[in-house]
């Protein structure tokens, strides 16, 4: 009987303690409340103008494929507006380019001309370029006439101002 009384007393103590215990509330997310407001987005870079590119640039163009080490050199003559841009080839030929500006980029598309890379082939090029650390850098795509499956070549282009 004493054993039953002890069990009953222990049971009542457990119930009493459970009744007195504080209910635990879920932790509040203080990180959200204390977080600083997010900073304002950085202002967009100032759009470039044709005048930013104006001048004579020594251009070097290489195939994107590392095994092709051929470098094609030319001089880009850029005006302060989008008219009159030409690429002067080592042969003396001047190739007119159509120019469009958008944001931080200049897009150029050439008239067809005799390729310096593929003798006897006509080519026209188009590319997108930016100013980086005082240089013109970008990608040129050469489109070769009557070349079958191998009619397009992607090139890396970089120019330094004269």
Task: Describe the structure using short key phrases.
162 residues, alpha+beta, Lipocalin, 8-stranded antiparallel β-barrel, 17% helix, 42% strand
The third-level CATH topology of the domain at 50-161 is: Lipocalin
Give me the number of helical elements.
3
CATH architecture heading of the domain at 50-161: Beta Barrel
Average per-residue pLDDT, rounded, comes to: 84
**Radius of gyration based on Cα positions:** 35 Å
Helix content: 10-25%
How many strand elements? 9
Are there runs of 5+ residues with pLDDT below 50, and where?
Answer: none
What this model shows, in words?
With 162 residues, the chain is of the alpha+beta class. The protein has a domain of 112 residues: Lipocalin (Beta Barrel). The protein has three helices and nine strands; from the N terminus they run αααβββββββββ. The chain has an eight-stranded antiparallel β-barrel with strand order 1-2-3-4-5-7-8-9. The radius of gyration is 35 Å and the shape is elongated.
Brief digest:
The protein has a domain at 50-161: Beta Barrel (Lipocalin). It has three helices and nine strands, in the order αααβββββββββ. It has helices spanning 2-20, 30-34, 50-53; strands at residues 55-63, 71-78, 86-88, 94-102, 105-110, 113-114, 122-132, 135-144, 152-161.
Secondary structure layout plus pairing:
Blueprint: H1 2-20, H2 30-34, H3 50-53, E1 55-63, E2 71-78, E3 86-88, E4 94-102, E5 105-110, E6 113-114, E7 122-132, E8 135-144, E9 152-161
Antiparallel strand pairs: 1-2, 1-9, 2-3, 3-4, 4-5, 5-7, 6-7, 7-8, 8-9
